Amino acid sequence: MTAPLEKPDQAEDLAGVLFDMDGTLVDSERLWSVAMDRVAEQLGGALSPAGRSATVGQPVPTSVAILLDDLGAAEDVGSTTALLVAITGEIFAEELLWQPGGEELIDATRAAGLRTALVTNSPRSLVDVALGLLGEHRFEVTICGDEVVRGKPDPYPYLRAIELLGLSPQSCLAVEDSPSGVQAAVDAGIPVLVVPSVVEVPEGPGRIFASSLLGATVEELRHIHREFGRSRRAHLRNAGPATAPARWS
After folding, report:
1. Gap between the Cα atoms of 216 and 74, Å rounded
2. Tens digits of per-residue pLDDT, 185-197?
3. Topology of the domain comprising 29-95
4. Per DSSP, what are the bridge partners of residue 173?
């Protein structure tokens, strides 16, 4: 599944906003960190700062593999993943909170008639816990890490989301916080509003940065989307549709 090529003069209005979950809509990265520490402690070790940073935004089995490698532990990835998910679910149920501005922006997006999707590397069991806070009614589509063939940073989760919404990459905007999530969206041909949390996201094509979602408006999302569209179409006119990549500057 790859992002479709776009005609140089084709312009599409913003029709859908695709939200990451952990660190973007909910303040969960610190909770994942607590859960990772508890698992590491049960395994007789402690996760290093470098190992912790490397897990951010990754599919859960990948994060567990990083954890085990960091600890030098011989435990099985599958059983350790189940342990981590169980501990994280307990913590989510008690301590999960919205990131500032997230709830208001989603509600404004829906009120404006835009489509919404939740696109996350977290497994369905944890997403269902989080949806108790987020509200299932706020998302037409939810894409979970254990329900796709490839997770972020692969573009597949975003491509699957827009397929289910019936939208094109050019009509959507993603909201992300991690390097892997931003890479996934950009490679899917979707521009990204980046709201960094734990790990710094590098500068690059197809992304614009905001300090937080607090005070963000739908009109600002539309403005960002229009500016990306102008830049993309200028690139396509210069490069020609036959060679147009999924990235733009």
Report:
1. 46
2. 999 999 999 998 8
3. DNA polymerase; domain 1 (1.10.150)
4. 17
Give this prediction's pTM: 0.84
Rounded Cα–Cα distance for residues 122 and 103 (Å): 19
In terms of CATH, what superfamily is 16-27+97-241?
A: HAD superfamily/HAD-like (3.40.50.1000)
Please state, in angstroms and rounded to a whole number, the distance separating the CA atoms of residues 127 and 118.
Answer: 9
Size of the chain, expressed as the number of residues it contains = 249
DSSP string, the chain: --PPP--TT------EEEE--BTTTB--HHHHHHHHHHHHHHTT----HHHHHHHTTS-HHHHHHHHHHHHT----HHHHHHHHHHHHHHHHHHH--BPTTHHHHHHHHHHTT-EEEEE-SS-HHHHHHHHHHH-GGG-SEEE-GGGSSS-TTSSHHHHHHHHHHT--GGGEEEEE-SHHHHHHHHHTT--EEE---SSPPPP-TTEEE-S-STT--HHHHHHHHHHHHHHHHHHHHHH-GGG--S---
Tens of pLDDT, residues 214-236: 999 999 999 999 999 998 888 77
Asked if residue 16 lies in contact with residue 109, where contact means CB atoms within 8 angstroms, the answer is: no
- Spans of all domains in the chain: 16-27+97-241, 29-95
**Contact (CB, 8 A) for 176 and 56:** no
Q: 193 - beta bridge partners?
A: 175, 208
172 beta partners: 16
